[in-house]
């Protein structure tokens, strides 16, 4: 009904979300990771589902899960695994939001045996992972909306704006790590949403409210495309 569509503007739409950290193995018992918990991405997946979208969440190692059971969760470990699942899911997706804290580098070689303690220093050679957001930007169709995140510690807006253009994303959500209550593991976030139209800075909000604001911005763009 019209009522239902108004309440669920994303009914019939497919959305893809990446969230959480990635773990890059260095030997059978160790990895290189980061402090992401996936909370923001899980909130985004839940917000998209509330708006009626059918959601696939590609989730790095975390014990957190979305509430309810409408969201299809695809657990992954490494950036390479996340890339393969994101690439496949994007073909059918109307919306992709890449919020994962993807490791920029992986170990050039994963040791077969546990690395033994030897010298006073240890050097591990790393090689670059593929950039999932930039890849999806390079294959994006006109009818798809792509959003990424940026975490910056200096020249925040300028660097985030450059990432948006270089990776061909419609939106970049800039995370402020400097403000109290914002960042890894917290329940609140303070972000700015960058698009071709400019910058919208949101106040300190719960991750659920931040997610709703991001999803609303995306929904408006989809609506504008359709008219
Ligand atoms: N990203 C990605 N794949 C990677 C690295 C990053 O998809 N291998 C995505 C992140 O999920 C995020 C966006 O790119 O949506 C920006 O991540 P960020 O770490 O801020 O930017 P980088 O391009 O990796 O640059 P740097 O870490 O040097 O600031
Ligand atoms: Ca990075």
UniProtKB/TrEMBL annotation:
Coiled coil: none annotated. Residues 15-227 are annotated as: Phosphopantothenate--cysteine ligase. Pathway: Cofactor biosynthesis; coenzyme A biosynthesis; CoA from (R)-pantothenate: step 2/5; Cofactor biosynthesis; coenzyme A biosynthesis; CoA from (R)-pantothenate: step 3/5. The keyword Ligase applies. It comes from the Bacteria. Its cofactor is Mg(2+); FMN. In the N-terminal section; belongs to the HFCD (homo-oligomeric flavin containing Cys decarboxylase) superfamily. In the C-terminal section; belongs to the PPC synthetase family. Catalyzes two sequential steps in the biosynthesis of coenzyme A. In the first step cysteine is conjugated to 4'-phosphopantothenate to form 4-phosphopantothenoylcysteine. In the second step the latter compound is decarboxylated to form 4'-phosphopantotheine. Catalyzes two steps in the biosynthesis of coenzyme A. In the first step cysteine is conjugated to 4'-phosphopantothenate to form 4-phosphopantothenoylcysteine, in the latter compound is decarboxylated to form 4'-phosphopantotheine. This is Coenzyme A biosynthesis bifunctional protein CoaBC. The gene is coaBC. The chain holds residues 175 to 401 of 401 of the full protein.
